[in-house]
Design goal:
Number of strands: 16
Protein name: Bacteriophage replication protein A domain protein
Strand content: 5-15%
Pfam family, one: Phage_GPA
Largest sheet: 5 strands, antiparallel
CATH superfamily of the largest domain: ACT domain
Helix content: 40-55%
Keywords: DNA replication, Endonuclease, Hydrolase, Nuclease
CATH class of the largest domain: Alpha Beta
Strand order of the largest sheet: 8-5-7-6-9
CATH topology of the largest domain: Alpha-Beta Plaits
Number of helices: 27
Radius of gyration: 31 Å
Structural class: alpha+beta
Domain Replication gene A protein-like: 188-510
CATH architecture of the largest domain: 2-Layer Sandwich
Organism: Pasteurella bettyae CCUG 2042
Distance between the termini: 60 Å
Length: 747
Amino acid sequence: MSWEQERDENERLKAQRGMIRQVPESVGTDGSLRPAPESCRTETQLELFQTVPYSYDFVEKLLNQLPRQRQREHFRKLYLREYRSVEMGGERKANLFLRDLLGNRLKKVFAEYRVDVAFMQSFAREPDFLLDRKMWDEFDRTLTTVKTKATYVDDDNAEQNFVRKFNQFAHREMSKGTVPFYLLGSQKLSELAYKIATSFSNVQRAFLDAHLALQQEFTTAEINGLMLRIYGFCGKVAAAIGFPLAHWDRYKSKGIIRQEYIDCTLMKICDEKYWVRNMQKLQKQMIEHIAIACGEVKKHYSSYVSRNGLMDWRQQMKKNYDFLKSMIIENVDDPAEQAELFDMYLRSSANPALRRLEMMTRLNGLEQWADETEHHALFLTLTAPSAFHATLSHGEPNPKWNGASPRKTHQYLNRVWAQFRALLAKRDIGFYGMRVAEPHHDATPHWHLLVYVDKKHRDEVVELFKRKALELDGNERGAKQHRCKVEDIDHEKGSATAYIAKYISKNIDGFAGDEERSDEDPEMLLKDNAKRARAWASIWGIRQFQFYGDAGVGVWRELRRLTAGDITDEELEEMRICADVGCYASYLQRQGGAMVKRADIKARLHYEETEPNQFGETRQKIDGVRLTRCLAWVKSRLKKWVIKRKPSTKPSTKQGECSANSGEFSPPWTCVSNCNHPKGKLSVNDIAEMMKIHRNEIEQIKFCLSLHKISSRWVTDYRLCRLVLGDKVGIYGGMFIHWDGRELVIE
């Protein structure tokens, strides 16, 4: 559309809107007149008000639950379509349609999320009962006494009392701000995260100050007990607002967890970024779940993931790639040795193409090993009951939908699989293979499993699989045909690997399917299918591919890093040769074969412990391989690398303009400027000019600040300019930082 056409279209819409505005009143069914409300801003809203003036408020109240303006407009049009579909009683029919579609279905969605943090957007203070010493004494009693039936009753009463007080306070505070959690913008979300983190920090500080005021010495065991009490109290608050702490389920069942977990968790809940990450993740899932409930995720419209969800995923992937392209890795011992971080990504198993090749190599190896041991291959499909599906196969809403999210459905499938494995273990039936989790057109996950078993156990395995798959709602129509499918691998049609290769390709990179269509949506190409499947898995945190009964791929990857002569042990060298030539079956045989117990694996990974992060957490980092029978190990990662920002090579456009004009000052080429810097306090103009001239250097400083986990609120533009000038800047806790022209030095 040219600009003239766009101008004419805008004028036409403006004139049409003006004509509608000329009729400020609508005639109701009783003949009375009603003025148009201020909320009428779009054409569809005005048309809706003109059509059903006395149902307008009811419709808008339902539509205001939706997070996107486009969704609200879509359902206004659907409402008007239902209204006009009958000659008489159109308003009643349309109201029932919208109430069922949005009222009932959205209630099911919101019931899945116990997020009650909206009131905390106006959280100016902590409730008094959080600092009540009697409540702390109750927690102390529950941890130091042996529970009887009476104490269980007391604990239940205390729990109900806590929840009652919390709900009363929440109701009072929610009156100050009633915006639902999933509608909060990024700025409001950050403010909310800051208030929550500050509240937890204040509660912990008040509790510790109260005990320090007693002026008595505490033993290590007593200190650990105090920290456990704080964890239990903060855990109740976090669970009440919908964000249970890490290891909370274990604490509720056992009453105790490891001390390092307590320390890390208590530090995390005082960190603003921790809450921002968790809230953003849950908010994305809620918005996507609402889109599923509204019928925006289905074939012929937007399979697997909503259009907005796919767009957000693509934007995030672009940001990830831009970050990788802007960074390099540098050898710590030899800074001259550098490499592009993006090139390293393309050469790693994080690259979908290489990941697919690695999985195909492993599958070929498993199949070769199974053929030699004469094991039977089964191809199983596990699908959830119809109540877990939001949309029917022809695209209409499922009236039996229970409101389950894709993640909850995946957890159900995982539970069925775990129970099936337990039945096999009780009967001493070994199995191994791979499973693929992929979505139906409405985002409901289902599993495809390649399972190898001994031929004599084939019938028993199939019988147990069908029993567990149909345990829930197994009598519904079509359950036996669609809920659990069993197919014996026919080697005349193709290998076992070929059966599952299609499902790997369609869910990772769409390889060898340029013109091939998706079986879920015939209008969608296989490559688009792969992108949507990856976006779906990313939003819901679902693991798409998993091997079981295998010796593990970690040792295989590390052995492929090594070369001839690096290993002196003959047994480990044989494994290295197998990995080097890509024969996974031979490698698997030397590891003990499929279904080998972990205690009997021949070679394992060797780890080194990293330095603690800001929360005191350490992690195990792979640095080699070792044999189980001895302590000797071989180092596979000979160099240590550090990630740094790529140095800028091209001058900016403004720099080029300045250098072309000899009458203007040019930004310095180095980090150190030889000109005289302003003395004393910088003025606003000085700060603005320095921020412009030293833009690249300030970006480097900001990046270093983020690496050191120093919040941007501690370093203003004035302080950034002082750092550029070489001054020391104080932040928090008596810490000082200064910029040496290349690195940020913390003192």
